[in-house]
Amino acid sequence: MRFIASLLLCVSLPSLAATPPEHIVAQYSISYTGITIGRVDELFARHGNSYTIESVTRSEGPLKAFLDDQITVGSSGRVGEAGLQPISYFERRLKNGKRDLTSEFDWDKGVMRTSSGGQDSVTALPRATQDRISMMYQFMSMKDMGATLVVPMATRRKIEMYTYKFIEETRLATPAGEFETRHYQRVTNDPKDTKADVWLAKDRFNFPVRVLLDDPKGFKLDQVLVSLEAR
Asked: How many domains does the chain have?
């Protein structure tokens, strides 16, 4: 998710609960050099062995004056012992549909079928692949939060191996409150890769409370939790 594709006032989660919540409403603010330029509203719902996620990013502040747009990202699929298994994913822009995208994950045949801009493609589908938005909620299902996390990630037409290394445990203040967090950082080897840092709330099911994205051109976006409701 470039925006958590991939990248939240009150928190209703119990401090230490045995299982992840089945319903989450979250809001984040997005800032650039300390100036708020966007807002993200997310909804996660689990019904039995299936899930849906919708993430809507809207322009705000000075950005809205010359780029008033909205990006909607969605994921749906199954929930198993290993967590989320995406079946369908989409990206839609309100003002410009040229980069709209849909992906279908055919786990039986081991392929991901993607359609965007009038072109279709088929890519081999590694086990445990996540899409840009399901990845942010897959953290809640991870049983082993070790020194390294490796996850196959669907990035539009490609699937890449994303490796995150543990940096530190730290207390993080957000508009939604203060959280004890685990800080992970994406390991990048190619200068063209986008750098990413994520802070996961230890007593909130490893829910992401901050995501920092730094693209190769130096455009750094800071996404911070504003509100969180879960049950």
From this structure: 1
End-to-end alpha-carbon separation of the chain, Å?
A: 25
Q: Is 15 exposed, middle or buried (0-12, 13-18, 19+ CB in 10 A)?
A: exposed
Residue 80 burial (CB count, 10 A)? 10
Residue 51, domain extent: 23-230
10 within domain boundaries:
no
Answer whether residue 135 shows pLDDT above 90.
Answer: yes
Residue 63 within a domain:
yes
Of residues 45 and 192, more confidently modeled: 45
Mean pLDDT of the region 22-34: 97
Do residues 5 and 194 lie in contact, with contact meaning Cβ atoms separated by under 8 Å?
no
Backbone phi, then psi, for 16, in 5-degree steps? Answer: -140, 105
82 falls within a domain: yes
Q: What length does the chain have?
A: 231
From the list 172, 156, 154, 177, the residue with the least C-alpha distance to 211 is: 172
Is 103 within the bounds of a domain? Answer: yes
- 133 near 53, Cβ under 8 Å? yes
Q: Which helix (H) or strand (E) holds 134?
A: helix 134-138
Any idea what the CATH number is for the domain that residue 36 is in?
A: 2.50.20
Distance CA 125, CA 106 (A): 8
Number of H helices, E strands in the chain: 2, 14
Compute the CA torsion angle 179, 23, 139, 215 (nearest 10 deg).
-80
